[in-house]
Design a protein that fits this description.
mainly alpha; Growth Hormone, Chain: A; 20 helices; about 0% strand
C-alpha cells in the first residue's frame, strides 16, 4: 500500500514537473549558466595551471583557443546525435563530462593530458549549448523572452565563473629584470611556496554540475513524452524557398555578429595601450570590465524590451546603433579616454541583445527545428573565431585603429543584410505554434 502511494506520489510529481514549462526553462537556463562558467573558469586560472605543469605562458595559453575551437566543432555534433538520443540525455552526459574533465585538468600528470581534457570540455560544451538553445527555442513557442533570457544566462555564467576562481588563485611574483618577451618564454616565475588551490575552484564548479545533472535526470524521467512528440511535429513543418533564403541570410548575419562583443572586448585593452592614447594596462582593464558590465546590462534590457517591442525593431535599432557608434569611435576614440570609454560602452549595449533578437525574429517568421538551431549556434561561434582572426590580423598589419574600422565595415554589411531580411520577412508565412 505504501509502495503504491509512493509510486502515485512520484507520478503526480512527474506530471506537475512536466506540466510546468517555467520549471523546465529554469533548469535549462541553469545549464546555459553552467556552460558560461565553463567558458570563463579556465582563463583566470591559466597562471596557476602554468605553475602546476611548469610550462611557459605561451604553452599554457594553448588551452583557451583549443577549448573554444573544439566548442565550435561540437556545435555541429548535436544535429546527428539529437535523432537517436533524447535531448535531456545528451545534456546530462555533457554536463557530467564537462564537470569531470574540468576537475581532472589540475590533476593531470602532464600538460598534454590537461590539453586533451580541455579539448573534451570544448567539444561537450558545443553539444550542450546547442542542445540547450534548441530546447529553449521549443519551449518559447514563438515568444522572444526565453531566447533573451538564454543570452543573459550565458553572460551571467561568464561572470560567475571568474568569481568562483578568484578566491583560490595564487599570487605569482614577476622578476623585475625580465622583459615581456622573456616572460612569455620563461617557465621559472616564482609561483610561491604553497601548492595551488585552483583544484578547489574546479571542485566547486564540478559540484554545481553534479546538482545540475540530477535536475536534468528528473526532467528526463518526468517530462511528458507526448509534449515532446507534439513539439517536434510543430517545428518540423516544411519550409518554402523564401523561408530557406531567409534562414540562409540570417545565418550569415549571425556569423558576422558572432560574439563580436567578445572579440571587441578582447582587443580593447590592446587598442588602449598601443594606440595614440597610451593608456596603462590597469586603467584599460577597468575600462574593459566596465564594457562587459554594460554588455550584461544590455542583455537584461533585451529581456525587458522583448515584452513590449517587436524583435525586428530591436534588431534595426541595434544595427544602426552599432554603425553609428563605430563611426564615432573611428573619429574620436584616440582623442581622449572619455570618448573611448563612452563609445565602447554604448557599442557593447547595442551588440548585447542582437544574437537573441535575431533568433527570436527567425522564430516569429519561419518554422525553426533543432537543425536550424544547430546551424545558428555554429554560425555564432564560428563567427567569433573568424572575426577574432580578421580583427587581430588587420590590427597587427595596419595598427590598433583598425579595430574600429573593422567594426564600422561590419556595421555597413549588417545594414545591407538587414534590408534584404526585411524584404524577405514580408514574404514568409508566419509559423503556427
Amino acid at each position: 500500500m505504501a509502495a503504491c502511494c509512493s509510486s502515485s506520489a512520484m507520478g503526480n510529481f512527474g506530471v506537475k514537473f512536466a506540466s510546468c514549462p517555467n520549471m523546465e526553462l529554469s533548469v535549462i537556463l541553469a545549464v546555459l549558466c553552467f556552460n558560461g562558467m565553463a567558458d570563463s573558469i579556465l582563463g583566470p586560472s591559466l597562471d596557476d595551471l602554468r605553475c602546476i605543469f611548469f610550462v611557459s605562458v605561451q604553452t599554457i595559453s594553448i588551452l583557451v583557443p583549443l577549448s573554444s575551437g573544439l566548442k565550435t566543432a561540437g556545435c555541429m555534433f548535436y544535429a546527428p546525435l539529437h535523432a537517436p538520443v533524447n535531448a535531456y540525455t545528451l545534456m546530462i552526459v555533457c554536463v557530467i563530462v564537462i564537470s569531470c574533465l574540468v576537475l581532472a585538468i589540475p590533476l593531470c600528470s602532464s600538460f598534454w593530458l590537461a590539453a586533451a581534457a580541455s579539448s573534451g570540455t570544448g567539444l561537450a560544451g558545443g553539444v550542450l549549448v546547442t542542445g540547450a538553445t534548441s530546447k529553449i527555442g521549443e519551449l518559447s513557442q514563438g515568444s522572444a523572452v526565453p531566447l533573451h533570457m538564454m543570452a543573459l544566462a550565458l553572460c551571467i555564467g561568464n561572470v560567475l565563473g571568474a568569481l568562483v576562481v578568484a578566491p583560490f588563485l595564487n599570487d605569482t611574483v614577476r622578476h623585475g629584470n625580465t622583459s615581456v618577451l622573456q616572460d612569455l618564454d620563461m617557465t621559472s616565475f616564482e609561483c610561491g611556496d604553497s601548492d595551488s588551490n585552483i583544484g578547489y575552484a574546479y571542485l566547486c564548479f564540478a559540484s554545481f554540475g553534479t546538482i545540475l545533472a540530477i535536475f536534468l535526470a528528473i526532467l528526463r524521467v518526468c517530462i511528458d513524452e507526448k509534449f515532446e512528440q507534439d513539439s517536434k511535429k510543430t517545428i518540423m513543418e516544411s519550409s518554402g524557398k523564401v523561408e530557406i533564403i531567409f534562414i540562409s541570410c540570417l545565418t550569415f548575419f549571425i556569423f558576422l555578429v558572432g560574439c563580436t562583443h567578445i572579440v571587441y572586448g578582447s582587443f580593447l585593452l590592446l587598442f588602449g595601450t598601443r594606440s595614440a592614447l597610451k593608456v596603462s594596462e590597469k586603467i584599460m582593464a577597468i575600462l574593459t570590465s566596465s564594457y562587459y558590465a554594460v554588455t550584461t546590462f544590455g542583455r537584461f534590457g533585451g529581456v525587458l524590451l522583448s515584452l513590449v517591442v517587436s524583435q525586428v525593431w530591436i534588431v534595426t535599432v541595434c544595427v544602426v546603433g552599432v554603425l553609428a557608434t563605430s563611426v564615432f569611435l573611428v573619429c574620436a576614440a584616440e582623442t581622449g579616454l572619455v570618448f573611448l570609454w563612452a563609445g565602447s560602452n554604448v557599442l557593447g549595449l547595442f551588440y548585447a541583445p542582437m544574437f537573441a533578437s535575431l533568433i527570436a525574429w527567425s522564430v516569429e517568421k519561419v518554422s525553426v527545428n533543432h537543425i536550424v538551431y544547430t546551424i545558428f549556434t555554429f554560425a555564432d561561434y564560428a563567427g567569433m573565431s573568424f572575426n577574432g582572426l580578421i580583427f587581430g590580423q588587420l590590427m597587427t598589419a595596419f595598427g590598433p585603429r583598425m579595430l574600429h574600422y573593422c567594426s564600422t565595415a561590419l556595421g555597413v554589411i549588417q545594414i545591407t543584410l538587414l534590408l534584404c531580411l526585411l524584404y524577405l520577412a514580408k514574404r514568409t508565412k508566419k509559423p503556427k505554434y
